[in-house]
């Protein structure tokens, strides 16, 4: 984390950097650009913040693709004193943020008793409990609210057909528009699995096998500010906040700690998706460089506006408080 402290009272503005790449593809998610955008915006704000007071942070947030660096950093208190966190993700459109799904990853492990499958009455099949749980969780789908999804696999189901398996496991993602609902659904599933395990005479252990991701809290005031700055810079076709979640991100964890924006900047044509070689190539092209300058300038100008007009920052924070109160 890079910090510049004016030593004078004022807001703390954080620019977030990502930098992890993908196997084989390289920077197919453009996190190398996110790093450059954050550093550039931080440097720019550092040049002027002495006039106003406050602090600039450039926060390196590793491993967005799988372990959710921002989640553990948020838990460790990195964003507790931050007033606003800003970042921009490159891709195939210009935008001012999007919702993301909360994700609760649960693993169910069943422990039974192995036996030769020709004398199955000496054993207790962990796989039977897993298979019944898999079916029961499928039945649960009828009762869940819209935009919520359950996807799971049988991770372990035994090694040989002539052995009653004493161990089986299921891995699930429970995704929902809010963390509280993702937890509610995953708790329902857990209760069902416990009942099934008992009925089968197995023992079950339930654990979070990956990092849970919170949904992203949208701050429309911040989104409007970035829209204004993008327009002033000549950025065209700016998509408003995308209200339909298309996945999950560790930015969600930060958005519960402070008003946060993850904007978007277009560096590839519409038909090129994320996690592609084409996007990786674009990050080091002329288009990538243009996107870098627009995105870094855009979020630096948002930060400057908040420093120059403390009442704007108050509005951003008031909206955040109101939204969080509704979610809890
Ligand atoms: Zn990404």
From TrEMBL:
One biological process term in Gene Ontology: folic acid catabolic process
Glycoprotein among keywords: no
GO cellular component, one term: cytoplasm
Gene Ontology terms for molecular function: dipeptidase activity; para-aminobenzoyl-glutamate hydrolase activity
Residue ranges annotated for the Peptidase M20 dimerisation domain, each copy included: 106-194
Annotated Pfam families: M20_dimer, Peptidase_M20
SUPFAM superfamilies given in the database record: Bacterial exopeptidase dimerisation domain, Zn-dependent exopeptidases
Keyword flag Hydrolase: yes
Keywords assigned by UniProt, alphabetized: Hydrolase
Family matches, as InterPro entries: Amidohydrolase, Bact_exopeptidase_dim_dom, Peptidase_M20, Peptidase_M20/M20A_hydrolases, Peptidase_M20_dimer
PANTHER family per the UniProt record, alphabetical: PEPTIDASE M20, XAA-ARG DIPEPTIDASE
NCBIfam families from the UniProt entry: amidohydrolases (TIGR01891)
Name of the protein: Amidohydrolase
């Amino acid at each position: 984390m890079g910090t510049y402290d004016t030593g004078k009272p004022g807001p703390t503005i954080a620019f977030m950097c990502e930098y992890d790449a993908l196997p084989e593809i390289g920077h197919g998610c453009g996190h190398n650009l996110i790093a450059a955008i954050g550093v550039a915006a931080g440097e720019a704000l550092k040049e002027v913040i002495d006039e106003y007071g406050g602090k600039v942070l450039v926060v390196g947030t590793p491993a967005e693709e799988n372990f959710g660096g921002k989640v553990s950093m948020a838990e460790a208190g990195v964003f507790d004193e931050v007033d606003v966190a800003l970042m921009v993700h490159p891709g195939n459109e210009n935008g001012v943020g999007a919702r993301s799904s909360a994700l609760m990853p649960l693993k169910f492990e069943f422990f039974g008793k192995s036996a030769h499958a020709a004398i199955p009455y000496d054993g207790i099949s962990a796989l039977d409990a897993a298979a019944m749980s898999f079916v029961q969780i499928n039945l649960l789908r009828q009762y869940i609210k819209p935009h919520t999804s359950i996807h799971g696999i049988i991770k372990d189901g035994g090694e040989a057909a002539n052995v009653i398996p004493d161990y089986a496991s299921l891995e699930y993602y429970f995704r929902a528009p809010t963390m509280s609902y993702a937890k509610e659904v995953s708790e329902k599933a857990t209760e069902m699995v416990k009942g099934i395990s008992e009925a089968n005479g197995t023992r079950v252990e339930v654990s979070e096998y990956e990092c849970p991701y919170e949904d992203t809290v949208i701050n429309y005031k911040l989104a409007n500010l970035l829209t204004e700055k993008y327009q002033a810079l000549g950025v065209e076709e700016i998509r408003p906040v995308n209200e339909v979640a298309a996945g999950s991100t560790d930015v969600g964890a930060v958005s519960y700690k402070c008003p946060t924006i993850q904007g978007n900047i277009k560096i590839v044509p519409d038909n090129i998706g994320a996690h592609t070689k084409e996007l990786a190539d674009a990050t080091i092209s002329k288009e990538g460089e243009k996107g870098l300058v627009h995105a870094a300038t855009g979020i630096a100008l948002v930060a400057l506006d908040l420093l120059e007009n403390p009442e704007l920052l108050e509005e951003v924070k008031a909206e955040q408080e109101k939204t969080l109160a509704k979610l809890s």
